[in-house]
Design goal:
Blueprint: H1 2-12, E1 26-28, H2 31-43, E2 51-53, E3 69-72, H3 84-87, E4 88-89, E5 92-93, E6 99-103, E7 109-113, H4 122-130, E8 148-154, H5 156-159, H6 166-176, E9 180-185, E10 198-204, E11 214-219, E12 225-231, E13 234-237, H7 240-252, E14 269-274, E15 305-306, E16 311-312
Parallel strand pairs: 1-2, 3-8, 9-11
Antiparallel strand pairs: 4-5, 6-7, 8-10, 9-10, 11-14, 12-13, 15-16
């Protein structure tokens, strides 16, 4: 991902005068992948010391560092319980990367945990990158300062966690601080090792004027071409035309309805929402437990009739 990103920058955006410094940093827990990455860095003339080994979540190797662009493809549904002792002391989160400041209903700011359930750490990787975003430093031009993030997730990051949970606090922090630009749904079976639905989250703390306060949802799940032979779970891919179509839709911030006609090339759909469309308040309504109400346990008399009136009398209680 790192060196391919470097190639993309150099090919698509050549430096004026041919001089530009690109510094790559990364961390990998798998030993084999780590050594391959280090070797790749040395072959390409980059600094291999910028690649660290170990868990990204347990130790903040790049504390104090800030980056222009960040990419991640965190493991889906993988437990982070082995990292928990570095992040939480009992039930309290002690790592500042995973605490956020949120306002309550009356506008008062409080510090909240931003740690999801231990069975899935995807959103922790996202918060790790959010903590490494460059501040704008007073810049008013969106071309100056700030950072951009792209992260690939499965669907659980979108909806797991009740209001007030770590997952909800993370999503709330990202949206209320106007960091989320777009979420792109990808086709199933696009990756080698999973066939589930995946999504790209795009974040920026320096949105263009037309994107401020907005979130774009792009459905590109029907935009693919089949492979002639499956590669593991992977049986499809994006063509260059598909990538161009997605990018154009994103850059235009356009709302598009999918054409359901067979053979139609218009297989992308897109909608734009205000940030406030994603928020809600959850209110607990407390009421007495009627099952515990105190009633007389003595016998209740049945209805009695006065034949002269021919009307039922009131209940008689002993």
């Amino acid at each position: 991902m790192l060196t391919e990103s470097q190639n993309f920058i150099e090919e698509k955006y050549p430096a004026e005068g041919g001089i530009r410094d690109i510094h790559l940093f990364g961390k990998e827990i798998n030993d084999e992948t780590y050594t391959i990455c280090k070797s790749d860095m040395m072959i390409k003339g980059n600094n291999p010391e910028n690649i660290k080994v170990g868990s990204t979540l347990s130790i903040d190797e790049f504390a104090g560092e800030r980056f222009d662009f960040m990419l991640s493809n965190p493991p889906y549904g993988k437990s982070w319980s082995s990292d928990q002792k570095y992040i939480k002391d009992g039930s309290e989160v002690i790592d500042p990367r995973f605490r956020v400041s949120l306002k309550d209903y009356w506008g008062s700011s409080e510090s909240y945990d931003a740690a999801p359930r231990s069975s899935d750490g995807q959103l922790l990787f996202l918060m790790e990158m959010v903590s490494k975003m460059k501040p704008l430093a007073g810049a008013t031009d969106h071309k100056s300062g700030g950072s951009r993030i792209a992260s690939v997730h499965n669907g659980s990051s979108l909806f797991t966690g009740d209001a007030g949970s770590g997952e909800s606090n993370i999503r709330r922090h990202i949206i209320e601080n106007d960091l989320l630009e777009a979420i792109i749904q990808l086709p199933n079976n696009l990756f080698y090792n999973t066939g589930i639905t995946t999504y790209i989250w795009l974040l920026s703390n320096n949105k263009t004027e037309k994107r401020k306060g907005k979130v774009q949802l792009i459905d590109a799940s029907q935009l693919f071409r089949k492979l002639r032979k499956n590669l593991g779970d992977k049986n499809c891919e994006f063509s260059p035309e598909h990538v161009t179509q997605i990018i154009a839709n994103y850059l235009e911030l356009a709302e598009v309805s999918r054409d359901e006609k067979e053979g139609s090339s218009k297989k992308i759909a897109s909608q734009v929402f205000d940030n406030t469309d994603f928020g809600y308040y959850k209110v607990n309504i407390e009421r007495p437990d009627r099952r515990k109400a105190q009633f007389s346990t003595e016998r209740i008399e049945p209805l009695r009739f006065d034949k002269s009136l021919r009307e039922p009398m009131e209940w008689a209680y002993s």
